[in-house]
Design brief:
9 strands; 34% helix; 31% strand; elongated
């Protein structure tokens, strides 16, 4: 009896069906499906993280999902060491210099949790909601040291009233306001 129950649970999870286990959602949501979409430009291509992140953010925004592009700088390839003063720094690993770089990811909220997705990952990664630097560090792991992170501003559509007011001469605007 127990084996049948376990096999049924494994089959449900492996087929991608969404279910709750102990209050934690297991499975797919619309946001997760969008994040995993392999047709988004830049997916799986080195050097295409920003075009991917921008395209995914726009797709999620169109679906009503709050998402933001975060760009961050990091150092990688070093081994953490402690100097005499107790400061932690990264030393080159295996005779190679520590590398520096930047990366762009999409952070989005789904079911009360914050997830991060980049163009090289197959599934979104859950991170604790915090400042962008801390979330980027959680995503990057212990072998990277995130130095800075910022949220890229999204394009805001201009309101039609603003454009119309700019086209109307100032004298006409004053007359209309007086009436």
């Amino acid at each position: 009896m127990k084996i049948t129950t376990i096999l049924t649970a494994v089959m449900v999870i492996s087929t991608g069906a969404s279910c709750l286990a102990g209050g934690i959602r297991i499975g797919e949501t619309p946001a997760a499906r969008m994040a995993k979409d392999s047709t988004i430009p830049g997916k799986g291509k080195a050097g295409q993280c920003l075009p991917f992140a921008t395209a995914l953010q726009k797709k999620m925004a169109a679906a009503g999902i709050a998402a933001r592009v975060v760009v961050y700088g990091y150092e990688a390839g070093g081994v953490p060491t402690t100097d005499a003063a107790g400061d932690v720094s990264a030393q080159p690993a295996f005779g190679t210099a520590a590398g520096r770089g930047s990366h762009a990811v999409v952070m989005y909220d789904d079911g009360g949790r914050t997830y991060v997705m980049d163009n090289q990952s197959w599934t979104p990664q859950w991170v604790h909601n915090a400042a962008p630097v801390q979330m980027a560090q959680q995503f990057s792991g212990i072998h990277c040291s995130v130095k800075m992170a910022r949220v890229v501003p999204t394009e805001r559509p201009r309101r039609a009233t603003t454009m119309v007011a700019a086209a109307v001469p100032r004298s006409t605007t004053k007359r209309l306001a007086a009436n």
